[in-house]
Amino acid sequence: MDSATFGQLEASLTQVLEHVQGKRDLRTTVLPAQPPPLAARDVRRLRDALQASQGVFARYLNVSTKLVQAWEAGRRSPEGPALLLLHLVAQDPALALRAPWAGSTDRVGPVAERRQEPDRLPPAAISDASTRPRSTPPARRRRSRRARGSRSSSTP
Prior knowledge:
This protein is mostly helical and about 160 residues long. It has helices at about 5-20, 40-50, 55-60, 65-75, 80-90, 95, 110-115, 125, 145-150. It has a domain at about 40-100 and about 110-120: 434 Repressor (Amino-terminal Domain). The chain is built from 9 helices and no strands. It is flat.
């Protein structure tokens, strides 16, 4: 070990010793507690309070409709950022209806007022993919050569 590395190690140990003896304060960060888990009935109650379908509720949270269905059926439970967002929306339901990146502030208001005026619904409710008819049928899957049977004319 060279002398520079030994000097750094010695300085670090001295700082640790000073901290243990109470002579030095180290920088600490206090993290907030994890949000408590939500049960399936809690997610359903929150969605019902917003008077939103599963598809619209999923759009508010920027998650898939299948995920909201799994939460409400109890097959999965919200976790991570989605869990935190659900708790925030539970405290202030207007958060789900707001889209700060959209630039319009006239759509902010109580949920009950929004349901009475259909022209003021959030864009997610108007352009929900589950309510639009399909314009083209889904693409057909092509079979591989092996599945179709090889048509090569290679004879030995």
